[in-house]
Amino acid sequence: MNHFKILCIFMLFACELFPQTNAVERIDFSVKDKTIDIRYDLNGNPKTKYQVSIVLLRRDQPEYQLVPKKVQGDIGKGKFAGQNRSIIWDFSDELQLGENIADYYFQVTAKPLKNRTLLYGGIGSAVVVGTVVAILIGGESAGKPIDLPPSRPN
After folding, report:
1. Within a domain: residue 1?
2. Is 50 within the bounds of a domain?
3. 10, 12, 35, 153: most buried by Cβ count inside 10 Å?
4. pLDDT band at 100 (very low <50, low <70, confident <90, very high)
5. Which residues on neighbouring strands pair with residue 140, listed in sequence order?
6. If we measure between CA atoms, which residue out of 113, 138, 144 comes closest to residue 2?
7. At 43, which CATH number?
8. How many angstroms separate the Cα of 4 from the Cα of each of 1, 11, 40, 75, 124?
9. Is residue 5 part of a domain?
10. Are 44 and 33 in contact (CB under 8 A)?
11. Is residue 37 one of the residues assigned to a domain?
12. Which residue has the higher pLDDT, 151 or 15?
């Protein structure tokens, strides 16, 4: 019975413990003079704030990673859910592009930022519901108390 109570409480917190991931799709980029325009779609809740970040990678060199510094646009903290989001990177001081531009690609990640009000409200609700479930399931019956076992013979 104790395991069932723990399982019920765990299920109440499952939404907070395992947040729904948001899909970043259709990542594409184009080079213009000394800037790169990175475009992406973020499928998520438009009212939610996200932490969006990018990394430049290479197909032929799996260990290669470059985190762009001079960036602006739909990156950092903000409400970025939607189609055709844009990040502009001034790469002139950070990268010397080779001839094989097709070797490069970007990884865009978006993590939802926690809303503290919702978090505390969710915890409070989970405690109340967990307590009610524990009382309903673990409550003692109102019947006759159990007698003591017979004494041991000598």
Report:
1. no
2. yes
3. 12
4. confident
5. none
6. 138
7. 2.60.40
8. 5, 11, 44, 43, 20
9. no
10. no
11. yes
12. 151
Pull the structure tokens for residue 28: 């594409």
Domain tally, the chain: 1
- Reported as a single tens digit per residue, the pLDDT across 9-54 is 555 555 444 455 558 999 999 999 899 999 999 998 899 999 999 9
